[in-house]
Write a structure and sequence with these properties.
Layout lengths: L4 H13 L3 E3 L2 E7 L5 E11 L3 E3 L2 H8 L7 E3 L3 E4 L3 E4 L20 E5 L1 H14 L3 E6 L5 E6 L9 E5 L6 E6 L10 E6 L4 E5 L3 E6 L7
Antiparallel strand pairs: 1-4, 2-3, 3-15, 5-6, 6-7, 8-13, 9-10, 9-12, 10-11, 13-14, 14-15
């Protein structure tokens, strides 16, 4: 089996959420952060024939890059690639893995987040070294996405405004938790549960929001 560029891209992204991963039989990848505040899943074109664990996903991807277009074969306790690589699986019990089932909360806010807006916001966070992202609507036209430092009353800020209508709400995120692959997303927010879902074309993320009374 060969991994497509898109699947490798997803795995690189997932490695930023959690360094280890449990591959399940089938064509779906799932991961969860060690803090259990980010859960991600993706549908891929490949179908894995068995369950196996990888402790260091970045290392695993680096090892696969040692050969051109690696052809993976899966044995009982290890995999091989192009007759050059032998890589042993990790015991699933030492990995941080998502729950088998996840009861999604009911969401009361839904809006689209275009790729350009998301890109600009995350770039501004990095350039201006601002840790917080606030998405807010006062009930009037326009949803504002502001990068700021909630602990600093004189913080610099960067704001993008979505030209859409929404009910009044405010959602706060740590910028470091917005680890999604850049793209267009539909954002579903449960203000009561403090959880958001970011649904992309092939990848979706559940990301916990920060409490409004905390900065």
């Amino acid at each position: 089996m060969k991994l497509s560029e898109k699947t490798v891209s997803v795995l690189k992204n997932f490695s930023s959420i959690n360094q280890n991963i449990l591959f399940k039989e089938g064509n779906k990848l799932r991961t969860m952060s060690t803090m259990k505040n980010i859960l991600a899943e993706a549908d891929i074109t490949e179908t894995f024939p068995k369950e196996f664990g990888i402790y260091d996903l970045n290392e695993f991807l680096g090892v696969l890059s040692l050969t051109k277009e690696p052809e993976l074969n899966f044995d009982e306790s290890y995999l091989t690639a192009n007759k050059k690589i032998k890589y042993f699986y990790s015991d699933p019990s030492i990995l941080t893995t998502p729950p088998e089932t996840f009861n999604a909360p009911e969401c009361n806010v839904v809006f689209s987040m275009p790729k350009d807006y998301l890109t600009n916001v995350l770039k501004a966070s990095a350039v201006m070294q601002l840790p917080d992202v606030v998405i807010k609507s006062n009930g009037e036209p326009g949803v504002k996405i502001t990068v700021t430092d909630l602990k600093n009353t004189t913080s610099n800020e960067y704001t993008e405004t979505l030209d859409i209508d929404a009910i009044p709400f405010e959602s706060r995120f740590k910028a470091e938790n917005l680890k999604m692959i850049l793209g267009d997303y539909v954002v579903n927010i449960s203000t009561s549960a403090g959880v958001s879902q970011w649904v992309g074309t092939d990848v979706s993320y559940w990301i916990a929001m920060e409490a409004l009374d905390e900065v």
